[in-house]
Amino acid sequence: CIFAQRRSIVPRGRILFAVHPSAAPVHARMSVKSRLPEFLEKCERELDRAVDFWLQHSHDTEHGGFYVCLDRDGKVYDDTKYCWLQGRQVWMYSRLYNDTEKYHRPDVLQAAIAGGEFLMKHVKDPTSMKCSFAVNRDGRAVKVQRQPFSEVFYFLGLSELHRATGEAKYREEALKMMDQLVQWMTVDDSGLGRPKWPGAADTDNMAVPMMLMCMIDQLETMDPTLSDDYTELAAWCVERLLMHIQRDGTVVLEQVSPEGHEIPGCQGRLQNPGHAIECSWFLLQYAVRHNRPDLKKTAINSFLLQPFSAGWDDKHGGLFYFLDVDGYSPTQLEWNMKLWWPHNEALIAFLMAYKETQDEQLLEKFAQVFDYSFSHFVDPDHGEWYGYLSQQGEVTHRFKGGPFKGCFHVPRCLHMCTQLLRELLAA
Known about the structure:
The chain is mainly alpha-helical. 51% of the residues lie in helices and 7% in strands. A hairpin with a 5-residue loop joins strand 13 (388-389) and strand 14. The longest helix has 22 residues, at 36-57. The chain is globular and about 50 Å long.
């Protein structure tokens, strides 16, 4: 059993865990297509373990919302509620309820509703439309960011909750937030509260069109009749994302100038392989839906294969978190760590790309990421995955939930991969 390859022993005061190598030699002798049933069985099992972890440990039945700071075994170590993760968990529970018979249950729906009500009551300022980044246990604001991402996940959670409940108030609230986000992201961002400093260059951050594209996809899922209303905006997102392909198509940069040119310094040379890979499957979905074979090719070659090749650690396995395209040491101190979410995005992207192309080399890349992820991030004793590994693959932070890790990337990945694998096996 692949889960038995690693045991985590936690002496008091230590947070490093020994992790065994990821690759089982027998896999090299197997046709990768023959592993599809194995992939499905393990994804389904880990999805159940992850969802059960959050259902059992994260619900605040007194004040509403979700505890997100959970230790390895689910114990709450801080009751601050980080609001990216409140919205994400509402979305995740609602999506599972909507899409999966196993999770189409009253307890899942009621947890999603409780989270949605907490969002609407405590997280958003009705005057400014800004959402808190963090609130305390009873919902009083602790921190507000000058970025739009708490609002993005507020929208995602409530729009999917509308699908689950049919209640108009969630749809209305989601659409109001969508309108505000489009204003902030494409017209005037002054409402976010960021000062304009005279020495700061304007930049185009890849996260903005990425998240807009994700929100448009969510709107079309919530209500397909809204698709035509966002046709131009979706095309704008694609155009902005393609500007981040630089140096004759050899790199995808996190930030470029508003005109689509490389900017000087560390900021301009920054690569985040996981972000580009996540973007690849956003673009691939759009390309398939709109019959864009040119964009499909770009999504796979430029946003998936190139960043994966650059980001994979050939010595220790796993994806680096950040890279400098000119080979300097990235200024981000965590640059060489292996985080859970880039691997989640790579699993989705490679499996989706294989389904669309039937190129077995893409399935082999999926297997490569699968073997590393399932032998390094999985905790055999408790549900949910570890999130943070050293370059060598040792677990550096034993918690399962924190300010940026909650009930989202792992279950979303496993849910989507389970759906894709079932489709591939059925075909």
